[in-house]
């Protein structure tokens, strides 16, 4: 083989090796949100899967591991600071749950994840916690402004923070509060909340309780809705 041919072959192998590193890093399992979540880049009006809240389909962010998907959702979408993320708990062959805590002994927020039919990436369908139960609207229910939100909760000074969000954006259409029970005793809440006209066909209701000490998120419940 001539020196020229050898140089071409070596150059091709270097390119293939580099591509292999890129692909490998795309699905790499790493311990922190900073390196586990790919950089989000807007691609355009991609259709969000009907049942999925996260990641946003309009970005290149995808997850090959359910725990990484849950971690990124907990920090970027729910607002947890350095959450303690548990092990993936298998449900059926393509879905399961990942528990998340704000502190080692804190309340558990359970994040629901599933591999959807398009590829093997993991998507977040919602989240729940024992101290915030939403009874209306139901998951995937169509809502319009104003929407009546009701359920049961317990929180510091009874305050639960509510956000109405649309697909593709972290900025809420509306931020409000509801008042349920307190001091560990659950009580009912019900409130009519008006929100801005969404530009997406679906979104989510996010309900969170915050720490009285530092304002950090303690736990959260999230349900999918359509508009």
Distance between the termini: 65 Å
Low-confidence stretches: 1-45
Largest β sheet strand count, sense and barrel closure: 5 strands, antiparallel
Strand content: 35-45%
Count of structural domains: 1
- Structural class by SSE content: alpha+beta
Output the radius of gyration. Answer: 21 Å
Q: Give the ordered list of helices and strands.
A: HHHEEEEEEEEEEEEE
The shape is globular
Share of helix among residues?
Answer: 10-25%
Mean pLDDT: 85
Number of helices: 3
Question: Based on DSSP secondary structure assignment, what is the total number of beta strands?
Answer: 13
SSE arrangement:
Elements: H1 3-26, H2 33-36, H3 66-77, E1 84-85, E2 89-90, E3 95-101, E4 108-115, E5 122-128, E6 132-136, E7 141-142, E8 147-153, E9 159-166, E10 174-179, E11 187-193, E12 202-210, E13 217-226
Parallel strand pairs: 7-13
Antiparallel strand pairs: 1-3, 2-3, 3-4, 4-5, 6-8, 8-11, 9-10, 9-12, 12-13
List keywords for this structure.
227 residues, alpha+beta, five-stranded antiparallel beta sheet, 3 helices, 13 strands
Protein model, in words:
The chain has three helices and 13 strands. By secondary structure, it is an alpha+beta fold. It has one domain. The strands form three sheets. Strands 1, 2, 3, 4 and 5 form a five-stranded antiparallel beta sheet that branches. It has a five-stranded mixed beta sheet with strand order 7-13-12-9-10, with no helix packed on it. Strand 4 and strand 5 form a beta hairpin. The termini are far apart. The relative contact order is 0.15. The N terminus is likely disordered.
């Amino acid at each position: 083989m001539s020196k020229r041919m050898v140089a071409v072959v070596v150059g091709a192998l270097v390119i293939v090796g580099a591509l292999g590193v890129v692909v490998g890093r795309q699905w790499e399992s790493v311990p922190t949100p900073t390196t586990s979540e790919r950089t989000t880049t807007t691609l355009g009006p991609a259709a969000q899967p009907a049942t999925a809240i996260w990641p946003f389909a309009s970005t290149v962010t995808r997850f090959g591991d359910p725990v990484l998907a849950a971690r990124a959702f907990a920090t970027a979408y729910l607002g947890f600071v350095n959450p303690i993320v548990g092990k993936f708990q298998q449900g059926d062959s393509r879905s399961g749950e990942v528990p998340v805590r704000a502190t080692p002994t804190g309340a558990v927020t359970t994040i629901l994840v599933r591999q959807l039919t398009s590829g093997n990436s993991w998507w977040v369908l919602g989240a729940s916690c024992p101290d915030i139960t939403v009874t209306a609207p139901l998951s995937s229910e169509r809502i319009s402004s104003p929407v009546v939100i009701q359920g049961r909760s317990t929180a510091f000074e009874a305050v639960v923070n509510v956000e109405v969000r649309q697909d593709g954006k972290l900025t809420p259409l509306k931020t409000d509060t509801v008042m349920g029970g307190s001091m560990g005793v659950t009580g009912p809440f019900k409130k009519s909340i008006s929100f801005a006209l969404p530009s997406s066909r679906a979104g989510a209701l996010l309900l969170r309780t915050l720490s009285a000490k530092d304002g950090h998120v303690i736990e959260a419940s999230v349900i999918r809705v359509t508009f």
